[in-house]
Amino acid sequence: MNTVLTQSLKRYGWKVIALVVFLVLQYQLWFDQSGLLANWKMQSLIEQRKESNAEFQAKNQVLTEEIIALRSGMDSLEAKARKELGMIKSGETYFIVVEGQD
């Protein structure tokens, strides 16, 4: 009886061990922190960050151009003050045109 059990273990034991090893490796491949699912999620996050970085770079470029324009001369500074702050030069006349309600 004992020999039948040892023969059975020798015959089928390696299959059980191989199956367990296979299942552990499959788990690591798919569900581990460095597995395929985590990799796909990380790729998606990287794409989102690239898009937001591109938007920020565009905004930074606009601000950089505005800084260069402001440093280059008083004309751009004066135009900005007129547009955003409603400032006028001394001696100028400022008119407000109000459209009538119909």
Give descriptors for this structure.
102 residues, mainly alpha, coiled coil, cell cycle
Give the gist of this structure.
Pfam families: DivIC. The chain is an all-alpha fold and 102 residues long.
Q: What report would you give on this structure?
A:
There is one protein chain. The chain is mainly α and 102 residues long. It has 2 domains: 1-32; 33-84. Helix content is 77%, strand content 0%. The protein contains 3 helices and no strands. The chain has helices at residues 2-31, 36-72, 74-85. α2 packs across α3. It is rod-shaped. 0% of the residues are buried.
Structural shape? rod-shaped
The helix fraction, in percent, is over 70%
Q: How many domain regions?
A: 2
Tally of separate helices: 3
Largest sheet: none
Chart the SSEs and their pairings.
Elements: H1 2-31, H2 36-72, H3 74-85
